[in-house]
């Protein structure tokens, strides 16, 4: 079921500082920041030859990464996004196996405009997993 | 400087349980466990089309992931490994930029038999970074 890693997301408290570090210290190719108010984050993409890293900074009052940054004030690894061919098939299989889909348990539209769901980290050894149909 | 993501490493308290979850619930292609006593871990590789995930379980007394699992008893995202063409050039550039290499500050031989170094998570917004020359 699991396909490519679409991205690895890192939460950071200060996006401008993180951009400078990834660009200058690590020599990475970083995008311009994009504010995604409907997702509660500002995001920068780091394009790598085989996948990408996303740097996330909270945006607005109810950012989904605010609680994570309260627990990890310096930032940290937030989630891994895997691609699947058919997210409906994936969702039904996951639920049938007892895995919990976060939120309403239904699909949403993700930051890339594609259908996504997030799986409960308690069902996956502390790792927050995003599943995206590409 | 940063090349491909070679792997994303997840620390887990119970490798057999994690293997069952990744294989059966997530439908991933998981390898047989490999004990790496000189690295203090037992590792399982999850091969994905564009990169891999490594599940790490502590092995022996002084496992480098023991402290992480004390803080995160359920497990969690442990590090990201990026490839570089020339790790000496990378190390010198990183040091010149003020980034700290963990341990002696020098290169080691990693779990894949290639030269590696780990960078201090405090210099990279809470993310532990491994750099590997492939």
TrEMBL record, chains A, B:
GO terms for biological process: L-methylmalonyl-CoA metabolic process. It is an enzyme of class 5 (isomerase). The keyword RNA-binding does not apply. The keyword Isomerase applies. Its EC number is 5.1.99.1. GO terms for molecular function: metal ion binding; methylmalonyl-CoA epimerase activity. InterPro entries: Glyas_Bleomycin-R_OHBP_Dase, MeMalonyl-CoA_epimerase, MMCE/EMCE_epimerase, VOC_core. Residues 4-134 form the VOC domain. Keywords: Cobalt, Isomerase, Metal-binding. It catalyses: (R)-methylmalonyl-CoA = (S)-methylmalonyl-CoA. Belongs to the methylmalonyl-CoA epimerase family. This is methylmalonyl-CoA epimerase.
